[in-house]
Amino acid sequence: MSNFSMREQLLITFMFLLVFVLAGMWGMQQLNLQKKLLQQQLDKLEYQIKQVRALSSEWKEVQRTPTAPVLPQALSSFVENIARSLEIQDNLQLNVLTNVQKGTEGVKVGLDKLKLDHLLSMLYRLENHRPVLRTSHLNISISPGSRQIRASFQVHKQQRD
């Protein structure tokens, strides 16, 4: 810089400072723009989190409330009462199911030496009962030599909390 006059040196220094200040201002502007974009993304994500939390609490509330009326008595005694009313309680065998869906109760019903009419009456009463009961895994076999059947099925009901 010794070849330049004092005035030229000041002008060059001023130009460097001006370029440095302009580059700093541009950099700050880019940082502010990036900050605004990130803040918008953050606000959007916070809104989504609030929505998820609201929906989660609504889902938990829906899970807590029964979706249908619940049978007040024990399922096994209810099935036994139906069998007694059809006068087939001696042919009835009940086993409580342990591996059922959460929030439900189930029994496995076994009926032996039974007439088809009695089985149909029992299934009809279970299927058309209010509150709703669900029957599944129906297995029917005919006893050889006689006109009687052997049947097994599962009955499920919603549990009270």
| Oligomer type | single chain
Q: Mind describing the biggest β-sheet?
A: 4 strands, antiparallel
Secondary-structure content class: alpha+beta
Q: Which topology of the largest domain does CATH recognise?
A: Alpha-Beta Plaits
- CATH superfamily of the largest domain, please? Ribosomal protein S6/Translation elongation factor EF1B
Walk me through the topology:
Layout: H1 6-64, H2 75-85, E1 92-96, E2 104-114, H3 116-127, E3 134-142, E4 149-158
Antiparallel strand pairs: 1-2, 2-4, 3-4
Summary?
With 161 residues, the chain is an alpha+beta fold. It is built from three helices and four strands.
Give a written overview of the molecule:
This protein has helices at 6-64, 75-85, 116-127, and strands at 92-96, 104-114, 134-142, 149-158. The chain is α+β, with helices and mostly antiparallel strands. The chain has a four-stranded antiparallel sheet with strand order 1-2-4-3, covered by helices on one side. Helix content is 51%, strand content 22%. The chain folds into two domains: 1-65; 75-158, Ribosomal protein S6/Translation elongation factor EF1B (Alpha-Beta Plaits, 2-Layer Sandwich). 8% of the residues are buried.
What are its keywords?
alpha+beta, 2 domains, 4-stranded antiparallel sheet, Alpha-Beta Plaits, 161 residues, 3 helices
